[in-house]
Amino acid sequence: MRNVINIAEIAMLRPDYMGFVCYERSPRYAAELNHAVLKSLFPSTLSVGVFVNAKIEHVVETAEYYRFNVLQLHGDETPEYCAELRTKYNCEIIKAFGIRSVDDFDGIHNYEQVCDYFLFDAKTELFGGSGKKFDHSLLTNYREKKPFFISGGITLADAENIINNCHELCFGIDVNSAFEISPGLKNVEQVKKLLNLINQANEQDI
Predict the structure, then answer these.
(1) For residue range 62-73, what is the model confidence (pLDDT) as tens digits?
(2) CB 3.0-4.6 Å disulfide test: which of 2, 81, 90, 184 passes with 30?
């Protein structure tokens, strides 16, 4: 998210998380976020600052200014990096991993103690944001205990399939390209349909 009006429109739908890309090379880079708009989000919506291989000092400074509730790390950040960041800015940390094969789950256990959630995306040369899917059946090989988000080119139909065939540790879905008019500008009606689908599924579980 980066457009003031669009942020306000999506905020009215009260999603659980709203992401803001703080990576200059991304087409969704939020160069100048509106501080006041972020402060006005409903308490039920957590603001997420997305960073890629940024210096810890920069992440902390940016997070403190915008009061991000969550930090999402989409680069090659090490477990030591995550641990140090947690000591300097106390919030939830989501660590993203590109998935292409079973081998890509190797080493993830090293992050168990320093992150709150994992995020699995398609493995590409980019640091996420490719709009490509990975084979979700690979998640049957996931052996860790940390809950995770699924990302990567998810459409409304994909979301319904994930909901109906959910891995027990799947905590949520991270959507972008299929719900955008242009990079960083969300299609409000599409997002509304997604949230209605999730809410209906939650009501059936009660």
Answers:
(1) 999 999 999 999
(2) 2
